[in-house]
Amino acid sequence: MSRPAPLCIGLALAMSCLTKSGWRREDSQVEHLFSIDDYIQLAKQAEAAKLDFVFRPDTLFLPMEMVGTEPGFSSLDPMVLLAALATATSKIGLVSTASTTFNPPYVVARQLQSLNWLSQGRIGWNIVTAIDGQTNFGQQNLMASKQRYEMAAEFTEVVQKLWNSYPDDALTFDRQSGEFANSNKVQAINHHGDFFNVQGPLNVPQYPSGNIPLFQAGASPWGRDFAAKVANAIFAATPDLHAGIELRNDLRQRAALQGRNADDIKVLPGLSLYLAETRQQAEDLYYQTHTSLTREKKLAYLQKNLGVDFSALDDTQPITVDMLPKLDAVRSHTHTNLLTRFIERESPTLEHLLTRPEVMGSAHWLVIGTPEDAVESIKQRVEAGAADGFIAVPGGSRQSAQLFFDQVIPLLAKAGLSRTEYQGSTLRDHLGLNA
Ligand SMILES: Cc1cc2nc3c(=O)[nH]c(=O)nc-3n(C[C@H](O)[C@H](O)[C@H](O)COP(=O)(O)O)c2cc1C
User: Fold this and answer.
1) DSSP string, 146-174
2) Where does the signal peptide begin and end (predicted)?
3) Tell me: the pLDDT tens digits for 183-236?
């Protein structure tokens, strides 16, 4: 089919402009957070900009320490949200997150395949193991990371078997003979594994566009191996160029070891954008958005992820790797490893460490500046081999998202880095999987 667009570009549908103190702006329209209109508008804008997909992150818990001061993880169910977006759009891909730790695979397989029919082949699945929420599912402790990924691998296998258990060409609709479907083509899966026993078949046939594309988030060694084996793309947290190059090279090598082509897996870092007409305005926007992030909160974050309390230290104190304890279990290897590698490399002062994206936000690549600055940064990452595209996470204000559509995308298109027309109408087409 068509040649894929030069960069793979997604937009986080997370109202990230409302996080931290963003919701307190007069023009934030925070009251719309749980109504569908704003999401439809964003998805339509993303479609008009010819992006590959909108992407819905998701969690299954609400951190009580956040909800008093910011939306945090307050959110509509992604499958329900995407069902509404499927009917309001016609071309753009719709990627939903679903956890393999807390859901039954039959339900996830069915929800995603149902959405694939509603959207006519535009669905993708972001596979996450999840970092919290166990107490909402009758579990005291979260399973160890390695075991979560073993479960994720089996979960994904079951979901794929279920999708294949009822192929669309089984449907014959033969009114004459009375055959609705060729039952020989519909097969039980009889899966018996370490975590799941599922007979199948699924009660939704597979949409004819082919396998639903898989995304993955999580970059521990197990997460990387899992992604290298099954994923079409990885949603990555790479705060600096160094982390981006390391992750992309490593994933490409792991994919090759699995017998795949290194180009089969796209590395799509989250790109946090604080955009304004001038650099000074963008700095102000970033500062205003983060006023609620006190020193205490940042130190608590470091303690949670590195297992050490730096609160008694002076800001000028260099933080070195020998100050870090050896941790047996961490919440997210991605976040702990990023911080550890940065400390190893730079021995930063505590003050510097507290300004890192991993500590201030969600460990994403961060651009605070003008649309031109964003385009320069994107070019630099791509040329350095640190990204195959990105997932835009506009922050701070609605204007930041508007500038992304009005200026960043046209500048990228002018540079030949984003498409100006869709060549196909399914997510597989956009990702070049049918080429
Ligand atoms: C960029 C990025 C995005 C993520 N998005 C989600 C998400 O939407 N929902 C979720 O439950 N977990 C999310 N996670 C967490 C991962 O699924 C995973 O549980 C976590 O990173 C621990 O795995 P790791 O040790 O391989 O890093 C995300 C992680 C990263 C790095």
Assistant:
1) HHHHHHHHHHHHHHHHHHHHS-GGGEEEE
2) none
3) 999 999 999 999 999 999 999 999 999 999 999 988 899 999 999 999 999 999
Give the start-to-end residue ranges of the domains of the chain. 8-280+364-430
pLDDT of 98 reads: 97
Listed as ranges, residues in the chain with pLDDT below 70 are: 1-5
Give the CATH number of domain 8-280+364-430; options: 3.30.300.20, 3.40.50.280, 3.30.70.660, 3.20.20.30.
3.20.20.30
Which is nearest to 217 in space by CA: 74, 391, 382, 79?
Answer: 391
Specify the ligand 1 atom closest to the Cα of 223: 26
pLDDT, position 4: 39
Tell me how far the alpha carbon of residue 58 lies from the centroid of ligand 1, in angstroms. Answer: 10
Q: Is the shortest distance between the CB of 381 and ligand 1 below 6 Å? A: no
Q: Which residue, by CA, sits nearest to atom 25 of ligand 1? A: 333
Instruction: Report which secondary-structure segment, H or E, holds 266.
Output: strand 266-275
| Closest residue to atom 16 of ligand 1, CA basis | 218
98 pocket-lining for ligand 1 (C-beta < 6 Å): no
